[in-house]
Automatic annotation (TrEMBL):
Residues 1-29 are annotated as: Disordered. This is Uncharacterized protein LOC110427880. InterPro entries: ARM-like, ARM-type_fold, TOG. One of its GO terms (biological process) is microtubule cytoskeleton organization. It comes from Herrania umbratica.
Length: 327
């Protein structure tokens, strides 16, 4: 279940991010588009005090230009800390500072600790994560993006140890990956990918499932993509344990979603589930001889409404026919 804070964060999503995206067309990974630092700098020439983004959000142009000077260091290029004890002592005050430069420095310290000294910071996670979430909400792009990169490193380091603190991180990353500021959006998508590869799917899927029904189509799309990436990591036995009937119902519900990313994720997931079903029932060679033994078609019709079953079978049959023709 989502925490109360996570629900409130979703409910306070700016109206500008609720636009109908039914006209958008694209692939499974839709590139984000919108205002970047360069756009802000152009607008600053017209209005040096502040500029409006997405028809409603006002940002300080001078602050955004300053943000463009921040160096974003990839995880593999981060160096170890010279003095771990001093860093730990300054960590929480730095994360809670009103000076955004100190906050960025502290976030990068969290990243270094996660990579090089994760055991040392483990006991502090309960205090660190709420402050990282606070930085994710920061309107200053430099702080927000650094916090996103920090989230990715935390996922990679602590895996399932984060599961009890995951909700506030997850909701913010879904929100950031759904906005129009391209470089923030892309960083959030990478953090979500790190989450799906680091947190065990058995723990992560129940956390993602509520967001598949979110009223914001962009949130649903990003959650669908994460869900689709996580399911194959269960493996055949894990999918059977989780419940292939539950998973097919989730995928079927996304087939008619508003955005193409959700629909493509659903199609990918259905093909995975069909493959697992056939393997687990050893039906690849026996269906033609004994169709009454529980074919994929019968399974879909027994678990879904007639319309949903028809849609699922259309997707999986077309894909199978394509594979046969191409082989």
């Amino acid at each position: 279940m989502m925490s109360g804070n996570a629900l409130r964060d979703l409910n306070t999503l700016p109206t500008s991010e609720w636009k109908n995206d039914s006209s958008s067309k694209g692939n499974f990974m839709k590139p984000c588009n919108g205002n970047t630092i360069e756009n802000v700098e152009e607008q600053q020439k017209k209005s040096p005090a502040s500029v409006h983004i997405n028809g409603g959000e006002t940002v300080n142009a001078e602050a955004e230009v300053a943000n463009s000077e921040v160096e974003y260091i990839e995880s593999e290029n981060l160096s170890d800390l010279e003095d771990v004890d001093t860093c730990l002592e300054k960590l929480l005050p730095g994360l809670n500072s009103k000076d955004w430069v100190l906050v960025v420095e502290a976030l990068n310290s969290v990243r270094r600790l996660s990579i090089f000294h994760k055991e040392v910071m483990h006991t502090m996670l309960g205090d660190v994560i709420p402050l990282v979430v606070k930085s994710l909400k920061n309107p200053r792009s430099a702080v927000c993006k650094t916090a996103i990169m920090t989230s990715a490193d935390i996922f990679s380091a602590y895996n399932d140890d984060l599961i009890d603190s995951l909700d506030p991180l997850l909701v913010q990353l879904l929100l950031k990956s759904s906005q129009d500021k391209r470089f923030v959006c892309e960083a959030a998508e990478r953090a979500l990918e790190a989450m799906t590869t680091s947190v065990s799917p058995m723990s992560l899927l129940p956390k993602l499932q509520p967001y598949l029904k979110n009223r914001n189509p962009r949130i649903r799309a990003k959650a669908s993509m994460c869900f689709c990436r996580s399911v194959p990591r269960l493996g055949v036995e894990g999918i059977k344990e989780y419940g292939i009937d539950k998973l097919i119902q989730v995928a079927a519900s996304q087939l008619s979603d508003q955005l193409p990313e959700s629909r493509e994720a659903a199609r990918t997931l259905l093909l995975e589930l069909q493959t697992v079903y056939l393997k687990s029932h050893d039906l690849t060679t026996t269906v033609s001889e004994h169709p009454e033994m529980g074919s994929w078609e019968n399974f879909c019709q027994s678990k879904l409404s007639p319309l949903s079953a028809q849609a699922v079978l259309r997707v999986t049959n077309i894909a199978r026919e394509g594979l046969v023709i191409g082989s």
